[in-house]
Specification:
mainly alpha, Serine Threonine Protein Phosphatase 5, Tetratricopeptide repeat
């Protein structure tokens, strides 16, 4: 029996990579099917940590599809798994994920409440605020056209490079910094799957910003900026955005 459970866990772990690949390739239905089947294997094996991991990915996939009710449902399951199994280190990440769902769904009051809850939990537990909260706060600031505040929030984020490039680019376009935006968007060409991890509002913001940039730059300027961006890694693009800040962070 132990050998069987170990085999099933190993099988599920390998299958997780397949699910993630399907997700990134845009095959959402196939990815959902795999994630659901893998979740059943981990539950049968009694692996709450891995069950958390799979369920969290399910929620993220539903978020990317714009099914916010399902995304919230699975993130709430993640919260229950964390509480019942003492996985406190992941609770703040779960709060942050729920804030992302609220933000994507346009429920700004709920998103703000969750941001405040995350900071309270961080203060009590000692766990650090995750990048998702800074993204939510930055997007809220952008909606208010408070670009200096948005820039300040984004500077707190070290990872999530593709998402950072996306937000910096859309923020630059919103302020008329079209060459900067074109460079940043050009750097994303090396990652053709990257829009698959965005929620529908984020994809729409990118498409609108790209249209503004294309319409506002001469063809040769757009081509030069895009080519410059294509030669950059995502980390280099983030550094470029921060050294050519569309607004003063001070």
């Amino acid at each position: 029996m132990i050998r069987e459970i170990g085999y099933r866990e190993g099988e599920a772990s390998i299958t997780l990579h397949l699910a993630r690949n399907e997700f990134l390739l845009g095959n959402a239905d196939r990815a959902l099917e795999i994630y659901h089947s893998v979740g059943e294997l981990f539950r049968a094996a009694g692996s709450p940590g891995k069950e958390y991991f799979v369920t969290n990915h399910l929620a993220l996939l539903y978020l990317a599809q714009g099914d916010y009710d399902q995304a919230e449902h699975y993130f709430e399951i993640v919260r229950t798994v964390c509480k019942e199994n003492g996985i406190r280190s992941q609770l703040i990440s779960n709060i942050d994920s729920l804030a992302l769902v609220a933000m994507a769904a346009g429920n700004l009051d709920r998103a703000n409440q969750l941001v405040e809850e995350a900071y309270r939990f961080s203060h009590k537990s000692g766990y650090e605020i995750t990048p998702e909260i800074f993204f939510v706060q930055a997007r809220m600031a952008i909606l208010k056209r408070d670009y200096p505040q948005a820039f300040a929030y984004l500077k707190n984020i070290d990872g999530r490079l593709l998402q950072l490039v996306h937000v910096y680019g859309t923020m630059a376009a919103a302020q008329g910094k079209l060459y900067l935006a074109a460079v940043l968007f050009g750097s994303l060409e090396a990652y053709p799957w990257w829009t698959n991890i965005l929620s529908p509002p984020e994809c729409e913001a990118y498409q609108q910003a790209l249209e503004v940039v294309r319409a506002g730059l001469r063809n040769e300027d757009f081509s030069a900026a895009w080519t410059k961006g294509k030669a950059m890694s995502a980390r280099q693009a983030v550094a470029y955005a921060r050294s050519n800040a569309p607004v003063s962070a001070g």
